[in-house]
Amino acid sequence: MTPPTVDVHAHLLIPEVEEAVAALSGLAEAKALDARRNGAASLAVSGPMVRSIVPKATDVSLRLAAMDAQGVDIQLVSPSPSHYHYWADEETAEKVYRLANEATAAHCAQGPDRLRGLGIVPLQHPEQAVRALSHALDQGLSGVEISSHAPGRELSDPAYEPLWALAETTGAILFLHPFGCTLDERLDRWYLSNVVGQPTENAVALSHLIFSGVLDRHPGLKIVAAHGGGYLPTHIGRSDHAWSARSDASAGCAHPPSSYLGRIWFDSLVHDPHVLRELVRAAGADRVLLGSDFPFDMGTEDPVGALRAARLSYPDFHAVRGGNAVALLRKD
């Protein structure tokens, strides 16, 4: 019996979150930074695109119909990363994560046999992130979505140790999905802010988790990296070389960086069957999960077809299509 098809990378838009921050001065500053990072031409395309997907990203009946058309049985639904609002103060941050977690839980409750959810946590307030994860789990969510960094903090920051400890203890899924790239204006044309920025941020964030020893201290963490983990898995040999050749590179983690790929899960959204095959080779077929980025334009409308194009073996195809995600979700 083959497993159901499970898409672990699908998003929800939450109007209540944006209404809660609309009048705050910090939002204007965040939008100005976003404009610098993306550039006017990209924003001119992204605005209409986001408006066009609002129905699919908010209406459960449309989501389920789209899943049927794609041959997807189960979606793991996470808020749009635009809802992170890592600029927010503690009071606003608590309001944001509560609204996001509760709205995601309510959305998924409308399709309980087919939808599972992830919440968000305010990484800009590490002590509050622990409470936010607990709140997400209390709503019946499977974990939380996090970005690649927060202002002034990388994921290797010791302040996040309590968050990692709670996630490990509870079995919560941590979906690593960047929002924004700190290369800023260097990527402000041709949508490079996303095309190059997202896989760069994935690689940097995962490198911080690996090289700092977070995965040594918390081997039970359930980290799922969006966008196939970015550039890191297919270029992990350079990390291994540095670890073996330089004392500063090997000071934080106990083993060669490539060995940690087997402790992380990666979605399949790499837009190239050859890269997907290499990801499966590098991380292991048991560590890759189907992902679509539904319903955004940088995703795929046929995630199963994209997986089929990689021409994996029969067991590996079905593991990535759903078997691995079923096992991962069953544990939470």
> Can you tell me the CATH topology?
TIM Barrel
What sequence of helices (H) and strands (E) makes up the elements?
Answer: EHHHHEHEEHEEEHEHHHEHEHEHH
The assigned CATH architecture is Alpha-Beta Barrel
CATH class: Alpha Beta
* Count of domain modules: 1
Strand order of the largest sheet: 4-5-8-9-10-11
Give a brief description:
The chain is built from 14 helices and eleven strands. It has helices spanning 15-21, 25-38, 40-58, 60-70, 90-109, 126-138, 161-170, 192-195, 197-211, 214-217, 236-245, 273-283, 303-308, 314-331; strands spanning 6-12, 74-79, 115-117, 119-120, 143-146, 149-150, 153-154, 173-176, 222-225, 265-267, 288-289.
Q: What do these coordinates show?
A:
The chain has helices at residues 15-21, 25-38, 40-58, 60-70, 90-109, 126-138, 161-170, 192-195, 197-211, 214-217, 236-245, 273-283, 303-308, 314-331; strands at residues 6-12, 74-79, 115-117, 119-120, 143-146, 149-150, 153-154, 173-176, 222-225, 265-267, 288-289. The chain has one domain: TIM Barrel (Alpha-Beta Barrel). The strands form 3 sheets. The protein has a 6-stranded parallel β-sheet with strand order 4-5-8-9-10-11. Strands 1-2-3 form a 3-stranded parallel β-sheet. It is an alpha/beta fold and 332 residues long.
